[in-house]
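Dear colleagues,

I hope this message finds you well. In preparation for our joint manuscript, I am sending the Zn-dependent protease with chaperone function (Pseudofulvimonas gallinarii) sequence together with its predicted structure, so that both groups work from identical material. I would be grateful if you could confirm receipt.
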Amino acid sequence: MATNFFERQRLARRDSQRLVILFGIAVIAIVVAVTAVLMVFLGLGDSGRVAQGKGILFSNWKVIAWTGGLTVAAIAGASLFRTIQLREGGAAVARSLGGTEIPPSSRDRHHQRLRNVVEEIAIASGVPVPQIFVLEHEPGINAFAAGLRTTDAAIGVTRGAIEQLSRDELQGVIAHEFSHVLNGDMRLNLRLIGWLAGITFLAVIGRILMRARGRNSGGIVMFGVALLVIGSIGLFCARMIKAGISRKREYLADASAVQFTRQNAGLAGALKKIAAHAHGSTLEATDAEEVSHMMFGDGVGYSKLFATHPPLEERIRALEPGFKLTDLTAWIRQQKSADVRTAAEERRAPLPDLEFTRVLGPAGAAIPAPVIIAGLPAAASAALAPGDVLEQVGSPGADDYRTAGLLHDSLPAGLDEAAHQPDLAMPVLAALLLAEPGAIRQAQLAAVAEKFDARAAQHADALTRLTAALHPMQRLPIAEIAFSSLRRMPAGHLRDTADVVQALVVADRNVSLFEFCLGFLLRQHIDEVLSPRDAKEGRKSLPAVQPAIGLVLSLLADVGHPDDRRAAERAFAAGLAELGQSITLKFDLPLDWSLRLGPALVELDQLGPVAKSMLIAAMTQAMANDGRIDVAEAELLRTTCAALHCPLPPLLHEARTRLAGTPTVD
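The corresponding structure tokens are as follows:
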């Protein structure tokens, strides 16, 4: 398994480069085949004229050149058309397979369990909560992740999976899919769909022409047969390319999922149930062939030569070395009894009260006391090492998942439900930013009412009774859940929400660190949703962005030492030392840092992968130079990493260890 996020991203980029080469080879093979067929039609295949082949080929070079050019143009056009379609993001792929997004008000226990698992893993991974789809008419056990970026990602799960798998097994499957998101596979998989659509295009046209009917359709049918034969070469190449790129990335995703959950049984159990299930992991959707490489299990039943996934037995044995297929029957019998007991317990558990108006209570109701979560005090403080942070970027572990579960399960019920309602997502975000009761809050509420309506402002004001009770570590997670719901709204609503949030952030002309973090993350999410595009790898070097580096390091150093300039300068110098002697900067934090920081983060995102890893190490060193890190510092580090598209879990390993032994605060 690759050692860290940056190495896994490098491998994904290498596979993308391989895809370009293989695609080129496939195109050449198709053009050669088309040329050969054309030569036959021109009579060059006649045995009596073989000796004159070169002369006749030369005399017909224009026809052959035009045919080759048109073939390349057709392939390129089909690939471009499909790629443009995929710019709509992961949700478009899910809907093309018959997926239905889980509605916020769903009372289906399977839906609720799936949503909880996805949200917990998203929080633990440090990425936005993806849209969640269920393929309701698919009885097989399967799942997928699709999207160009984490902000437009979608998770799709079959009805067979949510009904047949236990929570631990479902967790293993979803962790596997999130590893595809974090490893860069999700982007690569969509590229495969777009590019391979071109080299299979001729086969599709051939099938259509072969169905031609009518008196004079003989020539058309023959031409269709020729295209189908040529297209079969493209289909063969497409399947070989998918198999070559996908198999090893499935092993990597399995290993990443185990690292995340720290237990093999869940993922292995899901694979065993696929092996024993009547429908296996087969998809019935007409587009199953196109997406076969991005599924959790083999969705189309390819032969071994074209298989996009390793054999089930090999995947299970990688998780449980002593496994034998002969043990499967006994395991299934034992597991059925356990699943029946678990299902009975879930049915007995009461569903939460999801009625928003009842949770808010009457006007003037008392504000609940701050949430107390076992092991998570109101203010976190812990030791931190730069190397440990680099290991956590894009690499969540079991501790991150457990912490995310604590944060998620302890969210105030009414606030959690409001965050899942698309029309209440904006008021939730606004409530996180509202000032204490007074003139500033009234001005903020007026801004909300002006952009939306008075009812939206009333909801935001009422929700402050719940946001005030949040643990500091729950603020960004609840914002991420609200953003996921916000994506259901029209583009105009998204833009208005971004404008309102910015107005709330600057209302008191004194931007706090949390206000900046929330405002920046929301703007980044909305920009990427409204303008979805494939992420481009940055190429800038550290010396090319020195002013931006200086601003970020100065802010991080100052956050840890707000009243001690000398200590802040020492922290800045410690961070700078991580970047090498080519970077010469001085500690300098301007008063208008909040206006400059956003553009600086956008510029830093243009750094190359190695430079980004060095910058993250430098930021961590500047922040942890005093041997501690608190929630505000962790939020800023996470926001900066998000700007660099290097997702970081919201709570670091050392902080978690320290928190676990710290008594809660009453």
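For the figure legend, we might mention the following. The mean pLDDT is 78. The beta strands are 100-101, 131-135, 143-146, 154-158.

With kind regards,
E.M.
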